[in-house]
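ESCALATION

Customer reports they have been waiting on this structure for their group meeting. Please prioritize. Original submission:
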Amino acid sequence: MSQYIINNESGAKLQVRSAGMEEFKNPGFGLSMHWGLYSLIGRSEWALHTESIPHDKYFDMMNKFNPFRFNADEWADLMLESGQKFLLITSKHHDGFCMWDTALTDKKITNTPFSRDVIAELSKALNHRGLKLHFYYSLMDWTHPAYRTDWPAYLEYLNGQLTELLTNYGKINGVLFDGYWPRFETGPNDAHFKEGDSYNLAGIYDLIHTLQPDAVVTNNHHMLPIDGEDYQVWELDMPGENTIGFNCPEIGDITKAVWWNLNAGWSYQPGSHNLKSADTILTAKENAEKRESVFILNIGPRPFGDIHPDEAAVLRQIGQKTREKG
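Update from on-call: job pushed to the front of the queue and completed.
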């Protein structure tokens, strides 16, 4: 157990079934995507916070969000060509905007000019090709009013959204949580980051493993894993390393994964377009495999709904070079 656990978050009774873990690990190569309203800004998925954008102004962008080039079949085919086995997509990031047709908030993609449920379309396309679907979900929510005013109501909202995601889209193979970092103290002006009380992670993890027994669960909290978490993840580092300053240097006794990005940032950021080469990514992937770790590579789709041609080209090169090596 981690010394940093607060509010008695441990105590889950369930873990992923062995079959679900084997699906995750063998072979363990996934594609991650940070995609949402923030792609219209093109600077960071944290723009609402870092640029102090008023909430109403930020959500005015819903009237402009129309990713008309989105094609779930093309994305899934690119994954096959690249050799990836699962997709980890941001269902809800810290800004609170939802990429599925949730019944619990109006801040969702089906209330934009695009109007379609991308999670439903991706679920169908991936399943048709034997690919797996994982959800990124932010525990923290910068814009939900109950997050700072009515904690029980916020937890009801959170659990309700997870239940939607885990019951409306077929088989789900994983959930990655973010936005809970109890090791790091917040300042007096960081109201965006102050959870109201315990998330009851034990209950959340048991809910996931009950609804989707083959779904692997992790929490990007940068600590040793706790009950109910099925793998430990490191951002832009190898297991046990902390070159970027906030990763956990301790390695738990469960499955490991590393989470890298192809571009300089996590979301679509044309101003800092600086892709890693296919060889650089393959070297990192091989290093992860030597450490018995799943490798997850992130890209940031464009606001038009497509994957940047340069990113798609590197993904195809990764697949080609992998095939050439046998």
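Sent to customer with the following note: The beta strands are 29-33, 86-92, 132-138, 174-178, 216-219, 231-235, 255-261, 293-299.
Escalation resolved.
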